[in-house]
Amino acid sequence: MHFTSDNASGVPEQIIAALARANAGFAPSYGADALMDEVRARIRALFEAPRAAVYLVATGTAANALSLATYCPPWGAVYCHRIAHIEEDECGAPEFYTGGAKLVKIDGEGGKMTPPALEVRLAAAAPVGVHNVQKGMLSLTNLTEAGTRYSPAEIAALASVARAHGLPVHLDGARFANALTAEGCTPAEMTWRAGVDVLSLGGTKNGLMGAEAVVIFDPARAWEFELRRKRGGHLFSKHRFLSAQFAAWLEDDLWLNLARRANAMAARLEGGLAGLPGARLRFARGGNMVFAELPRKAHARARAAGAQYYPWPPEQGEDGPETQPIGVRLVTSWCTGEADIDRFLAALKGEGDQKAG
Predict the structure, then answer these.
(1) Which of 86, 142, 255, 340 is deepest in the core (most CB within 10 A)?
(2) Which of 299, 304, 290 is nearest to 353 (CA)?
(3) pLDDT digits (tens, 9 = 90+) for 122-164
(4) What's the CA angle centered on 29, arms 27 and 34, to 5 degrees?
């Protein structure tokens, strides 16, 4: 009953086997390995982007921060949602790697900003010229930090506003595979065809040991990214071990199947919570994250049974009056099983206690 994060899950056997194979013998360093050629070709084919530049790093923070730095100058503003991961969970890495760009936060229900809200913020930007931070770029997250999902049409609408103001668009896709499979569209439809310039393609939350891709759809920006990756300390010498993970992940649609499994378990969890007296779903589920309010007694029973998950928002803490529900975030992963979901729901309902009595 582990629902803290998909980061807490293990690694599929296909990835472990690929790493073992890659460990044999010698291979060129710094991304010159044959496996990286394979990864690059597969991502270009999947995204229908034959000229895209593709790079690997080990963390989502590096993927996001380096992507933003490649497109946004130090005097620029990165427009993002108020609860975006780059705002709340990266310890100032975007500001650090861009050399000082400012994150400008925009509100929106369920972790999603709207075109009118973005337009209002952009129209009011830099009213006195050199004295203000300048318009830099737009950053979106899919899945969002509230577990909701942008459709390609919604991304396109926001990208259109950004384009009208001369802004490039970044997509934080830490859970891109979950959003993609839930939406039922193609990778191209959710990215460059919708106006996205650079994608952080997350692998770690979807089964990899530690590998993320940056997909730059305009190859003219590739060299700057390479320099920033090296200068920022994120060019791996034994790069083949990043490449091996991605090559196996992309083979035979493993990345999509892992995401589908996680989404299916979240749907099962969502359905069970809908039937729990006193429980309420907070946001529309976009993939493998469920945000809910639980009765305090149900929460206490689940905790006593060993269930792991985070209160959300975190600042509310675990304690509170019994009459006040507690907000929680529940995240399923590729290795969450039906039995895990059913045992958790039973614990919330106190069914195990009744049987024991």
Answers:
(1) 142
(2) 304
(3) 999 999 999 999 999 999 999 999 999 999 999 999 999 999 9
(4) 50
Instruction: For residue range 63-101, list pLDDT tens digits in order.
Output: 999 999 999 999 999 999 999 999 999 999 999 999 999
Q: Is the pLDDT of residue 355 over 60?
A: no
Distance CA 288, CA 263 (A): 4
How do 134-141 and 169-173 pair as beta strands? Answer: parallel
Domains along the sequence of the chain with CATH: 12-254 (3.40.640.10), 256-356 (3.90.1150.10)
Distance, C-alpha 273 to centroid of its chain: 24
Q: Give the chain's radius of gyration (CA, Å).
A: 21
Tokens of residue 177, six digits:
């595979």
User: Is residue 142 classed as helix, strand or coil in its secondary structure?
Assistant: coil
What's the rounded Cα separation, in Å, for the pair 331 and 263?
9
Distance set, CA 152 to CA 173, 287, 303, 336, 337 (Å)? 13, 15, 38, 28, 30
How far apart, in whole angstroms, are the C-alpha atoms of residue 297 and residue 326?
10
Provide the whole-model pTM.
Answer: 0.95
Element containing residue 172 per DSSP (H, E): strand 169-173
Identify which of 174, 216, 222 has the alpha carbon closest to the alpha carbon of residue 191.
216
Nearest to 141 by CA among 94, 209, 102, 207: 94
Residue-averaged pLDDT of the chain: 96
- Please give the pLDDT value at position 354: 46
Tokens representing 111?
A: 């972790």
Query: How many residues in total does the chain contain?
Result: 357
83 Cα distance to chain centroid:
13
Would you say 170 and 196 are in contact if contact means Cβ atoms under 8 Å apart?
Answer: yes
Predicted confidence (pLDDT) per residue in 236-248, tens digit = 999 999 999 999 9
What is the structure's pLDDT at 139?
A: 98
- DSSP assignment of 329-343 equals EEE--TT--HHHHHH
